[in-house]
Amino acid sequence: MSSTATNPRQQAHELIDRMAPSQVFAVVGLLQTMLDPVSRAIANAPFDDEPETENERQAVAASKAWMAEHPGQGIPHDEILAEFGLASQDVR
C-alpha cells in the first residue's frame, strides 16, 4: 500500500473495498451528508449563544399555556409541511 500514502483518494477506495456492506452503507450516508451544502452549512454554523429575551420567554410560556387550554387544537405538523409542498419523509 505504498501508493496509498501519497494518494488519499486511492486509499479511500481501498479501504471501502475492504468494508462489510453495512459499513459501506454507513460511509455512503456520511459522504452524502458531507457533500450536501445544507448539511455542511448547518454543521459549520456557529453555536447560537444569544441569550433568550424576556419577550421570547413570555411568548413561549403563552404558547404552552394556549396549547394546555386547547388540547388537540394545534395545527398538525403534516398540515404545516403541506403548506410548503412537503411531506414528512422530505424533512428527515
Question: Could you please describe the fold and organization of this structure?
Answer:
The protein is mostly helical. It folds into two domains: 1-45, no CATH class; 49-92, no CATH class. 61% of the residues lie in helices and 0% in strands. The chain has helices at 8-17, 21-35, 37-44, 54-69, 77-83. The chain is elongated and about 65 Å long. The relative contact order is 0.05.
What's the gist of this structure?
This protein has helices spanning 8-17, 21-35, 37-44, 54-69, 77-83. With 92 residues, it is mainly α. It folds into two domains: 1-45, no CATH class; 49-92, no CATH class.
Keywords:
mainly alpha, elongated
Assembly state (oligomeric): single chain
State the separation between the terminal residues, measured CA to CA: 39 Å
> Helical region count?
5
| Overall shape | elongated
Which regions have little confidence, pLDDT < 50, spanning 5+ residues? none
Order of helices and strands: HHHHH
Which range best describes the helical content: under 10%, 10-25%, 25-40%, 40-55%, 55-70% or over 70%? 55-70%
